[in-house]
Amino acid sequence: MTTWEELARRIFSDVEHTPEEYEALYPPRSLPEGARVTRLAPSPTGFLHLGVFFAAMINRVTADASDGLFYFRLEDTDSKRAVAGGEEDLLRGLTAYGIAIDEGLTAPGADSGAYGPYRQSERTALYHAYVRHLMEQGLAYLCFCSEEQRQADRERQEQEKQRTGYYGPYAHCRTLSPEEALRRIEAGESYVVRLRSPGSEERRIKFDDLIRGVIELPENDEDIVLLKSDGIPTYHFAHAVDDHLMRTTHVIRGEEWVPSVPKHLQLFQVLGFRPPKYAHISPIMKAEGESRRKLSKRKDPEAAMRYYAEQGYPADSVQEYLMTIASSGFEDWRRCNPDAPRSDFPFQLKKMSVSGALFDMDKFRDVSKAVISRMDVAAVTQAVTSWAKEYDPAFHALLSRDPAYAEAIFSIDRGGKKPRKDIACWSEAKDYAAYFYDELYQPSMEGMPEGLTAADARAVLEMYPTVYDPAQEQQEWFAAIKALCPSLGFCPEVKEYKQNPAGWKGHAGDVSTLLRLAVTGRRNTPDLCAILRLLGPERVRGRLAQAAQAL
Ligand code: GLU
């Protein structure tokens, strides 16, 4: 007579420790009372999705709000879905976008913490210890059903409009004796290990989701797979063991996992673990016409974190905006605390949207412009330069030819109470800075003040050099323009001009618009006096002459 206990020991001869020993190896963490331990547990299935980044950020701020800890575990048990370089992409994206990871896989090639290993593929012996333990108690059994048998059952279930899954009459191997199982193993049959579910569809479970409130669902009665035929655990099983041994207090993840909670709670129960608290985040939405839909990996480039890197959006912009959609109170808080670090915001999961936060590109760009407008010049120059190094080598070459000149460009109108909000991302810096580089400058007099003729404009451009002095500061500079006005038929004062517009060709502002167009090719730029100073007299005179000639 074989018992389940004997069979379990025989199958899992690789087990190194008992569950009790693991409890001692991974003891409760010594953190302050109430500290939350959160985690991101992605699978390496491709690029870093905005939704995963969002979840990482929510996990991070939840841990921070309690002096807790946020760790990263890689759920790489599904080798069919794994993508080469997936782990690195995830970690690179998270760290580049400002998510600090306290423990686990903390950056590409880096690993730290006493609760590891943090890759599920390196934890097989550990999972086997727990499966063995379940089997010894008769809570897990071996299933030899073939894929064909499973497929036939599924088809029948669909035809008869029943739930699909391995339960009740479909759980064929549930009643196999340990002797029979042993005989079939010895005959070389392949098998999986299943949970002997103690649940019933008739009963309901209840749990308090920290975002969505109380949720009630039928108990799990499926004998779910714990170990696949190659001995690798399923996600459901592995994550329960890991969340327990890594002493996770809060599982914060995507809404798509809500239907799995009954399975998960049951696993925690049969394993004798205390369940974590759950919070399920709604997906990020996008407006399409009148309706809303989930941000889509396929349709929306902004669904991939790669997009933000390629466009050159600062980490701070992305996080600042995501906080506004994560918490309805964030914007008001930010208005009252314009300079406070985000970590001061009292974040609460229960204030998150249940219907799904809307990602509004225009609003995101406005937030990013504001973030960039508040950065200091050294940081801007450094960020533009390193973005260009990777994504625009020609622009990078221009910037690095004279780093002090580059810095001077980005310093114009920076600082002060109402900084300009010209660019939302670093890829826009090239266009912003174009007229400072002869290689990029494109002359254009398009957008001249209304009513002026080419001859009027030419006269202004030809006369201006007579009062131009590169040493002038703002006030002197504008005073010189005003002084030039009457002789050209322009009114020095706008107010006076408005009283009698017919009496003049234009006013001093129109003169500076003409100069601006001639020198930069743009109607709208930062402080023109500073631009002239930076371009230097030779280039200024050259461009004025060129523009006058072209008119
Ligand atoms: N590996 C799962 C995923 O890819 C993790 C789900 C969870 O956080 O429990 O989303």
What does this structure look like?
The chain is of the alpha/beta class. Helices cover 44% and strands 11% of the residues. Strand 1, helix 3 and strand 2 form a beta-alpha-beta unit. Helix 14 packs across helix 15 and helix 14 crosses helix 16. It is elongated and about 115 Å long. The chain starts with a helix and ends with a helix. Glutamic acid binds next to helix 8 and strand 10.
How would you sum up this structure in a few lines?
Helices cover 44% and strands 11% of the residues.
Please supply descriptive tags for the structure shown above.
four-stranded mixed beta sheet; 551 residues; elongated; 15 strands; 23 helices; alpha/beta
Structural class by helix and strand composition: alpha/beta
Question: Are any ligands bound, and if so which?
Answer: glutamic acid
Largest beta sheet: what is the strand line-up? 1-2-3-4
Number of strands: 15
Global mean pLDDT: 95
- Runs with pLDDT <50, length 5+? none
% residues in beta strands: 5-15%
Termini separation: 104 Å
Major sheet summary line? 4 strands, mixed
Rg over CA atoms: 33 Å
Helix content: 40-55%
